[in-house]
Amino acid sequence: MLFKYKATTKDGEERNGSIDAISVDVAIGALQKRALIVISVESGEAGDLLKRFLAMFDSVKTKDVVILSRQLATLFEAKVSVLDTFKLLSSETENPVLRKKLSEVTDDIQSGIPISAAMGKHSAVFSPFYVSLIRSGEESGKLSESFNYLADYLERQYAIVSKVKGALIYPAFVVVSFIVVMVLMLVMVIPRLADILKETGQAIPLYTKFVLWLSSLFVNYGIFILILFIIGCVGLWRFMLTDAGKAIFNSVQLKVPYVGTLYRRFYLSRIADNMDTLITAGVSMVRSLEVTADVVGNDIYKKVLTDAIAGVKGGNPLSSIFSQSKDVPKIMAQMTKIGEETGNLGFVLKTMARFYKREVDTAIDTLIALIEPMMIIFLGVAVGLLLVSVLGPIYNITAGI
């Protein structure tokens, strides 16, 4: 909870600000440890609307969290105290958003809150997966190893997510370029050619009439089409934020030819990697499944993991639950069974994660190689047909003169 406070220093200098704490008493304790004399503390959850709106755009990149995890692991290995570690990093971190979060985490730790609980209050930066691994490190006394696990995991996830996004940027750019070129031609080029056709009084083919009608529609009602397009995009975006919208998107995402296969491999790689990292770090099977379900990023695979949680709690092996799901390949269920029988489930999951990562890399490279020529051909043919539909009749006129 956010609290606003008024305080003074020992020298009488007035200080105003806000502090994040679980209660008023914790907030007062944290302020007193800063050598401040507290005048008043009140709830600030209502806050300033402008500040809350601007906070929506605050972001911390995965790369920053990876570097932070490496630094934390190094400082813990060097036997630097927890409080000194977070004080140092909160003052040295370049990202202003992350610096503010670390400062708040430092205040919470100083007030007696465990590291995992302090970081868990900032879920936009530290995911449930991250917090669970920290909690495991606290319980086992292996915090430096936990942060090393996190840094390794985040680096792998960052690499694969970046590659998937990179593969989709090019076709998106080509599609947007195509739409812009077509609209410009319909608004600026086709109307001038249409005037020439009308002046001749010659019969116009049906497909040319359609192009001229489309051009007239954009010229006369372009602003309304743009408004409807924006409203449609906003409406679709809002629908995608609902549970029903997410369910439809997640289902369609896995059914698109080739791209669906790519995303399936991506999610399977994430599941195997998450489970391997958590189990290796000493997190229980049930808790590992719960955390993985929260961060997998697809409702279909989240349901698979949720069913697995219920099954494992009921005493069933994970492999038998995976084998009953049509969304989990047989090879993954079989390998999981081998891991359970040999007691090397973490190693088997790591192997599966590497396997599916290679599959994703190969699929992306193939997709990029295919998309580029296909998009260029599609764009050229579409623009060519548009021009031929109008220039064809003009050529017939000039040929008959």
Describe the structure in your own words.
The protein is mainly alpha-helical and 401 residues long. Helices cover 77% and strands 5% of the residues. It folds into three domains: 2-55, no CATH class; 62-155, Up-down Bundle (Receptor-associated Protein), CATH 1.20.81; 162-401, Type II secretion system (T2SS), domain F (Receptor-associated Protein), CATH 1.20.81.30. The protein has helices spanning 24-33, 49-55, 62-77, 82-92, 96-110, 115-120, 128-140, 143-200, 206-240, 243-255, 259-280, 285-295, 299-313, 318-323, 330-342, 345-400; strands spanning 2-8, 14-20, 37-43. The chain has a three-stranded antiparallel β-sheet with strand order 2-1-3, with helices on one face. α3 runs antiparallel to α4, α8 (143-200) runs antiparallel to α9 and α11 packs antiparallel against α16. It is extended and about 90 Å long.
Structural topology:
Layout (H helix, E strand, L loop, with lengths): L1 E7 L5 E7 L3 H10 L3 E7 L5 H7 L6 H16 L4 H11 L3 H15 L4 H6 L7 H13 L2 H58 L5 H35 L2 H13 L3 H22 L4 H11 L3 H15 L4 H6 L6 H13 L2 H56 L1
Antiparallel strand pairs: 1-2, 1-3
| Order of SSEs | EEHEHHHHHHHHHHHHHHH
CATH topology of the largest domain: Receptor-associated Protein
Query: Which strand order does the major sheet show?
Result: 2-1-3
Number of separate domains: 3
Strand content range? 5-15%
What share of the residues lie within helices?
over 70%
Give the CATH H-level superfamily of the largest domain.
Answer: Type II secretion system (T2SS), domain F
CATH architecture annotation name of the largest domain: Up-down Bundle
Which structural class best describes the helix and strand composition? mainly alpha
